[in-house]
Amino acid sequence: MNENLNQTLLDWVNALNAPLWDFLVVFLVAVGVFYTIATGAVQIRLFAHSIKVMKNSRRPSQDPHGITPFQAFVTGLASRVGVGNVAGVAIAIAIGGPGAVFWMWLTAFLGMSSAFVESSLAQLFKVRDPQNQQFRGGPAYYITQGLKQKWLGVLFAISLILTYGFVFNAVQANAISGATSHAWGWDQANMILAGGFEVSWVGLALVVMTALIIFGGIKRIAKVAESFVPFMALLYLIVALYIAILNFDSLPAMFQLIFSQAFEFEAAAGGFFGAMISMAMMMGIKRGLFSNEAGMGSAPNAAAASDVKHPVNQGLVQMLGVFVDTFVVCSCTAIIILASGLYENAGFEGVALTQMALESQIGAWGDDFLALILFLFAYSSIIGNYAYAEGNVQFIYNHRAVMLIFRILVLAMVYFGSIASVPLIWSMADLFMGVMASINLIAILLLMPFVLMLLKDYRRQLKQGIKEPVFKLDRHPKYKAKVDSDIW
Question: Most C-beta atoms within 10 A of its C-beta, which of 80, 105, 405, 415?
Fold first, then answer.
């Protein structure tokens, strides 16, 4: 991409980002605390139970048109576990220091309650697609039904399509391009067309591979995600655990560094809120939100597609996804980077830092290994991101021609991401992510009475000894009139 154009776009996006994130960092923490208190710390009290729910969720769906809760979980995890866990953590530590990891953890802990809230709502307000009878839902649906604000539902749907269908997929493609360039020098393997126009082979390959999946629909996406997301995450965790064992004596010092630098003050923004925000806090919360997506309104789109007996079941499953993403996968990346000490070298950018850190710990093959793992992470995220965006295009206008145009634009953004600069792509992601999260967090805040009703109903049945609670909307006449559903 032309360097001057790249810098102009970057300056414009950063100018919009500053006031948005000045406010949003404080707002994210505040609403996370509120959801935690309002749900009685559901992420603690029902954590063990959520693992049991997950184990039981692998059973085939009773509805032939629905997907299993486990498939919804891995589709959500496919989007969560991606570039944010590798490049995002590296960027957070490189810019915000080791203390940024603490703020990623805090964002995840509070975000587990947000994920529970939004995914439970997605199940309650889900609908059947009149064409294929599959379940559809998410923030656009619960905003329209629960708040009776169709215009706001459409606005959210547009923001999600722009964020996940276009910008986040460009981020994933950018990371794949960067990783393969660093490991194998594939950025040199470009094709020169007539007139000197350069085409990226990596970008074209990603476009073709993405096209093979996105023309298959949500059920194919769920099956693909179910097949390799657990495997790739396990493989990455094994290597990270090996590195942690190698550096066992240094682990206490690493954690001390994280906690001691978490509260070192260095203003990250201007204005009233910005004066209270350190660089570690800003980068930790930004990259934490990008990684686990809790409260953004993305995972509920996958959560709504599953067939469950009670909406809370899927809320618990998606809550567990946030835990796995940040406390497990992101922490592994942090250990790899901190063990290497290379984060203090400003010459490394994005995924290259993680690759160099891994290579310093396990040898030259680590570079190749991470390039392969990152490809799997990022490619699975492209699949999950598309699934989210597709449902929201259908919400606005479900027409075959519209879907075709949308898919072509998605492929165009995948290619754009493969050739754009790292700072521009991540700044664009921050901007669109911030807009989308703001709309969803306000919406679920207003819909909390529905969530508290669901949670109370679920806990009541557990206390009665019912191992698998079943939700019946007829038992709640006060809410039945507000929920337009023939499912519950």
Answer: 80
The CA distances from residue 449 to 25, 127, 146, 147, 150, in Å, are 25, 20, 10, 12, 20
Which of 395, 383, 315 minimizes the C-alpha distance to 137? 395
For 188-247, strand residue ranges (E) read 190-192, 198-200
Distance CA 246, CA 235 (A): 17
Q: Would you tell me the crossing angle of helices 139-146 and 99-124 to the nearest 10 degrees?
A: 60
- Separation CA 18–CA 277 (nearest Å): 12
Radius of gyration of the chain (CA): 22
Residue in this structure with the two tokens 């922490």, named with its chain if needed: 331
> Has this prediction a pTM greater than 0.70?
yes
SS3 content of the chain, % helix, strand, coil (to 5): 75, 5, 20
- As a whole number, mean pLDDT of residues 199-207 equals 82
> Nearest 10 degrees: CA dihedral of 363, 365, 371, 375?
-130
pLDDT digits (tens, 9 = 90+) for 70-95: 776 666 665 566 677 777 888 888 88
